[in-house]
Amino acid sequence: MLLLSLLLLSLPQSGADTAPQTRWEFPEDQLEITLPKGFVLGAEQAPPGGMMLHRWATTIGAYRVDFSLVVVPRAQWGLQDPFDVMENLAYNRQAEPGGESFRFEEEMIFEGPFGAMPFASVATAAKWNVTERIGTEFFLGGLTADKGYSIRLQCQPAADKPTRAAILKFFREGVVYVGEVENPLWTKEEAFARWEKDRPRAFGGELKIVRTKHYIIFTNSSSDKLFAKKMEEYYDAIQATFPFPEVKGRKLMPVFLFRTGEEYFEYYATIAQISKQVAAKSKGHAWRDYYATYYDSPVDPVHIHEATHQIFSNRLKLGGGGSWFQEGVAEYMSTQPNERKGYARNAAKHAGQTPFQEFVLIPSLLQSAGKSATGEDMAQNHYLQAASIIDFARNSKFGKKKFDDFLQTMGSQRFADLDTIEAAMQRVYGIDLAGFEAEWVKYWD
Ligand SMILES: [Zn+2]
After folding, report:
1. Are residues 146 and 22 in the same domain?
2. Structure pTM?
3. 15 Cα to the center of ligand 1, angstroms
4. Do 397 and 365 share a domain, yes or no?
5. How remote is the CA of residue 344 from the centroid of ligand 1, in Å?
6. Taking Cα atoms as reference points, which of 134, 169, 177, 176 lies closest to residue 154?
7. 17, 298, 336, 409: most buried by Cβ count inside 10 Å?
8. CA of 308 to the centre of ligand 1 (A)
9. How remote is the CA of residue 365 from the centroid of ligand 1, in Å?
């Protein structure tokens, strides 16, 4: 019944004495869409259905612009941030037949009343017919209280400058969320609910909740102040190395800091459903939105390493590429230049590295343990090899101009897939992976 009334509400009005409809309300999702001047509403489209709330066929001058409003449940799709909506969208497009090469050309952030988090993720993509650019697609993604929504807009032919400007203006002004905005600092209720959901059963002392500029720290450690200060320093160092914007309204990232290893091992074993024995091999881990660890030394390199993982998946939204890429960026932050150089020089001189075509396919560098021919720990060498690749891409004459492109492209590729990595290499540097490896050897040798 609810759906039907929604449909009725959103049907365009007709009749000679009424002006064409320019505004649509979607009360269930607290969204309002207003067509600005310049957009001319065309013939009625096939009725929407399922996840599609509405579609519009319009023209702007000589351009045909078709678009739709789609919603999906947040909980089911794991949408915690508007960027997740866009990530899902790209992922789904890549999974369509012939969609392997789909990628966004531009990605932007629009701050404003776009949802339960006060910003939207906006992107564009080109539509190709072999080598001819035949259209432009525009996307806007945001969150309501319980859904992720996206507006997908197809413009044909490819949008010229004024048409592009008109469409982006529509995104800025014509899409409004009228519901409540979430507290980026977490409400007391939210914080306690999260704690109750995830807390280890054995837990000594008193729970403290400490908020810093970027983190909400759940802890029973008396050293929370020093640890909090260090986490903010790590955040700054990571942001300076792998730039990402500060977006108003983004939620603080959760950190669990336990007083004892015992409490941490129990937390990890329970949440990841692994044995305590396996959990006890780690000192800290970043997973989903959180980082969990126990108090030992606040300058232990594990913290900046795991903080990098947390930021790559929750701020940069670059959680792809493969273990080589993810461990590479984290290890780049937690090692000294001399450690990387020591390993890479030696490897480059004696062909000691794992060939890159093999290396990028390793599902987990951590689990690639074993002894190399000379008896060194393989996992340790693999971590250094990964870090030395990031070092080379960031600091070598060959790599540095394209470093940002390299990060964005590699970090958004399917995990450990040779074809997509080869294609990405071609796009960024115009060479194949073997050519990239040869440049790496030249740099370190
Ligand atoms: Zn790691």
Report:
1. yes
2. 0.88
3. 63
4. yes
5. 19
6. 134
7. 409
8. 8
9. 9
